[in-house]
What does this fold into?
Amino acid sequence: MKLPEEITEELKKEVSGVLLPGDAVVSVGPVGLTDTLRMLETQKRQLAAFFSDRFLKDTEKLKSSLACYRTAEELQREHPETDLSFVHSFLPMRRGGFLTALWKMAEASGVGLRIDLRSVPVCQQTIEIAEVLGRDPYKEDSHGACLIGTDHAELLLSLFRKRGIPAAVIGYALKSNDRLLYSQELVRYLDRPPVEFRKGENPCM
It folds into this structure.
């Protein structure tokens, strides 16, 4: 079903640039980590029944791996030594999480996707804590992570490696409208999420 024009226009404002067919989709920063850190505060007693004190303290330290880039311009300012004109599209993840951001980027650009979920940067601690609490790390708050569309993925990845920020090519944009998510032998379509627009949110805790 086609989106109302006003929502489409808001999407285009939220997503910087345009994801082009053939572009690599790069996921930067561990997804779901912001939600994990929040759960350490709000569900501490429940988590302590499943995990050691050392595990929980090590999880708290993961905050330093958040990317915290809010715009493509901010990314460029952080890396003045490199011309980042090859960044075609940029979108910070928000409360809707990784899957919502992925859908927004594709929808705003009118392209399809082929995404390997196994390649998405996600901390093992996030996976384990989400499993205990019955949460989906791909749908939870991912402030501090972002999606980037580019035709120079390796150059981009090298910049994040130098900063110690996890990043990976997770798939590619397609000319077709198909938005496919792969996880080993399983394939499913990327569903349209509830679309929300939250202005003024801080992507870093």
Remarks:
- The mean pLDDT is 91.
- The two ends are 35 Å apart (CA to CA).
- The chain has one domain: 5-189.
- Residues 5-189 form a domain with the Phosphoribosyl-aminoimidazole Synthetase; Chain A, domain 2 fold (CATH 3.90.650.10).
